């Protein structure tokens, strides 16, 4: 249950981080410290935040005009959300509090383990996307050929996506490990009680 709840919170974080436009924000270095406009860029749109409190956003017109890093990050984040939602459906069928997977405890444990593996795949995809995007920001920031007024740093959305990825990975790992232990423990308790009784009864007959 703890793994499922952590993965659910992580899925919400992934969705919020993917939608938010603050994946990278304009860095206040050099002459940018006196500017009255802060620029934000996300996976789906770019925004300009003025000192008066107004924000104007523009959705990217064409996908083909975007760079490869942004396209790959967008695809990996969408894939991560889809895998996490699928993992939630599979894991819910393998939980003891539901009747979707039948009454067989071994089968339900295996279904829950499969859901945990799907969670791990989804969290890994989003973690790769966030690290790739962050690496691109760092490279452009320290590139001497990049103009000072076009340098960006990390925004709030990438940290939210990082946190969501970590929670999904943690939840998937907990579900996979706990279900494996239940299987091994159940297999050990089946056989020992049935072996001691026939031997003692035969001994009593000879006495």
Automatic annotation (TrEMBL):
Q: Where are the transmembrane segments?
A: 72-90, 111-135, 155-175
The UniProt record lists the keyword Oxidoreductase: no
* Major location category of this protein: other
Signal peptide (from-to)? 1-17
Please state where this protein is localized: Cell junction, Tight junction; Cell membrane
- Pfam families assigned to the protein according to its UniProt record, in alphabetical order: PMP22_Claudin (PF00822)
* Membrane topology, as annotated: Multi-pass membrane protein
Q: Which GO terms describe its molecular function?
A: structural molecule activity
Provide this UniProt record's keywords sorted from A to Z. Answer: Cell junction, Cell membrane, Membrane, Signal, Tight junction, Transmembrane, Transmembrane helix
Region called Disordered, residue ranges: 183-207
**Which Gene Ontology cellular component terms are annotated?**
bicellular tight junction; plasma membrane
- InterPro entries (UniProt xref): Claudin, Claudin_CS, PMP22/EMP/MP20/Claudin
Question: What biological function has been recorded for the protein in this entry?
Answer: Claudins function as major constituents of the tight junction complexes that regulate the permeability of epithelia.
* Family designation: Belongs to the claudin family.
Question: What's the name of the protein?
Answer: Claudin
Question: What organism does the UniProt record list as the source?
Answer: Polypterus senegalus
> What is the organism lineage in this UniProt record?
Eukaryota, Metazoa, Chordata, Craniata, Vertebrata
């Amino acid at each position: 249950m703890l793994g499922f709840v952590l993965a659910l919170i992580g899925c919400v974080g992934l969705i919020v981080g993917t939608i938010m436009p603050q994946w990278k924000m304009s860095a206040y270095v050099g002459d940018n410290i006196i500017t009255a406009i802060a620029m934000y860029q996300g996976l789906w749109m770019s925004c300009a935040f003025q000192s008066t409190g107004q924000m104007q956003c523009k959705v990217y017109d064409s996908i083909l005009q975007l760079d490869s890093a942004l396209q790959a990050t967008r695809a990996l984040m969408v894939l991560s959300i889809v895998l996490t939602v699928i993992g939630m459906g599979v894991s819910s069928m393998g939980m003891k509090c539901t009747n979707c997977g039948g009454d067989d405890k071994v089968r339900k444990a295996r279904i829950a383990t499969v859901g945990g593996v799907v969670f791990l795949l989804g969290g890994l995809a989003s973690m790769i996307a966030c690290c790739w995007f962050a690496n691109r920001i760092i490279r452009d920031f320290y590139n001497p050929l990049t103009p000072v007024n076009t340098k960006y740093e990390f925004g709030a959305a990438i940290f939210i996506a990082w946190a969501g990825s970590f929670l999904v990975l943690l939840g998937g790992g907990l579900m996979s490990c706990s279900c494996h232990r239940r299987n091994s423990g159940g297999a050990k308790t089946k056989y020992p009680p049935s072996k001691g009784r026939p031997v003692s009864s035969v001994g009593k007959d000879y006495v």
